[in-house]
Amino acid sequence: MPYFDPPGWEPDRGLDVAIGLLGWECERTEGGARDDALERLRRACEAGPVVVGPIEMGLFTHQPWSRGVADGTDHWVVVLEVTDEVVVMHDPEGYPYVTLPISQFMTAWSAEKVAVAGPYVMRSNFRKLRDVRVEDAVRESLPYAVEWLSKDSAAAVHRISAMLAGGIDEGMREHLAGFAVRLGARRLDDAATWLAVVGEPAAAEIARQQAMILGRLQFPIVQREFTRAAEIMTELAPGYERLHDALK
């Protein structure tokens, strides 16, 4: 499934990098038996919030559009408490203090179809090491951005464009229309905003242009105008190399 991430992107690694750049450290644990993982999570919550993931978002049935079917979509949440019956968490999809039955949560947390990290990954015991301005963290992240932009994003874009031109199935259309396109456009627009803040106006302008192109993809995807969607998708290809060159 397309997510408009750099080729080879590892969100689990990205999370560790972001935590460090912002001046924090934490304990990362993973794996083990299901019951042991649950007990580990319960104990960790007694000391503070716990970042849990990847989890299988398709099994998060508190989300009204969920079909309760694992589809490999990774997700992360902040768990606040584990009671005898439910897990209490903040879900960044827009659900604060939402609950999920323990059995459902644990199945989602096993992440059997998620191609990221492994089962029962969590980060707990967060400790602040130093004060870091967000602007400084963003500036220090730019070498990582250059590294990821050195991958062949253009080739990936052309592959997706070819898929669109040939017609995509309903599952992929729903994924693009309901999630991936808006997420990708938002990420690019956020990147443009922060690149401008840290004094990278040329890169900011390129990122903004990429966001605008991707945003135009939403309507034809929803309306099943796949030929038009493929044409728009192709327009994205040269922008990634331009963004790389502007930042290196």
Please characterize this protein's 3D structure.
- This protein is α+β, with helices and mostly antiparallel strands and 248 residues long.
- It folds into two domains: 105 residues, Alpha-Beta Complex (Cathepsin B, Chain A), CATH 3.90.70.10; 114 residues.
- Helices cover 53% and strands 17% of the residues.
- The protein has nine helices and six strands; from the N terminus they run H-E-H-E-E-E-E-H-E-H-H-H-H-H-H.
- A six-stranded antiparallel sheet has the order 1-6-2-3-4-5, sandwiched between helices.
- A hairpin with a 3-residue loop joins strand 4 and strand 5.
- Helix 6 runs antiparallel to helix 7.
- The longest helix has 28 residues.
- The two termini are 29 Å apart.
Number of structural units classed as domains: 2
**Number of β-strand runs:** 6
Helical residue percent band: 40-55%
User: The biggest beta sheet, please?
Assistant: 6 strands, antiparallel
Secondary structure tally, helices: 9
Indicate the mean pLDDT.
Answer: 94
Strands of the biggest beta sheet: in what spatial order?
1-6-2-3-4-5
What's the N-to-C terminus distance? 29 Å
Residue windows where pLDDT falls under 50 for at least 5 positions: none
Overall, the morphology is globular
The helix/strand class is alpha+beta
Strand content is: 15-25%
Order of helices and strands: HEHEEEEHEHHHHHH
Rounded to an integer in angstroms, the radius of gyration calculated over CA atoms is: 19 Å
